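We modelled the chain as a single entity of 193 amino acids. Its sequence is:
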Amino acid sequence: MLVGIMVFSDVEVLDFAGPYEVFAAAAHRIPGLQVLTVGPAERVRCRGGLVVVPDWKPGEDAGRHTHWDVVIVPGGPGARHPSAERDWAVRFVADQWSAGATVASVCTGLYILAEAGIAAGRPVTTHFRAVDDVARMYPGLEVVRERVVDSGRLLTAGGVACGVDLALHLVARTWGTDLAGVLAENMEWPVTG
């Protein structure tokens, strides 16, 4: 299984780092699970100044990474404000959705899912401070206030730290609650329903 965790300029660090930590820990226990960061450039400057070098960039390893099983879309200012990188993220998500990937957003990563046209008609969630803005900008979305909303191939998580809950939920759904519980315990993370 190949999990791609997106990064782009002005991405919220915990939005991608929390899920990355969960899937990287799971990869030590699950043969064949691989988690990579996916970004539009050689280097990405995150919100707060952290610089990340994505594992995979467009046009690289085209034969090996044309289809991702799971794509995690974090939030942050870079997910909300128009830019060439945001346009790339929207196209990447739409392409992966069309190819059958499970797509999940954390926090305001929901804006990218909405722009990609894959969130309409399903219940979704985002950071509590963005709920009204999302409902105004995307009236076709059913925005609810939950930590994680699972709509099958589309999952969304609330603000920032909820990305850890999302990743643990995906682990539990895919490999069982026992593994998710072990990972949560090792991270000293409370398990939510």
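As a brief sanity check on the tokenised model: The domain at 2-187 is CATH 3.40.50.880 (Rossmann fold). The beta strands are 2-6, 34-38, 44-45, 51-52, 70-73, 102-106, 123-124, 142-143, 148-151, 154-157.
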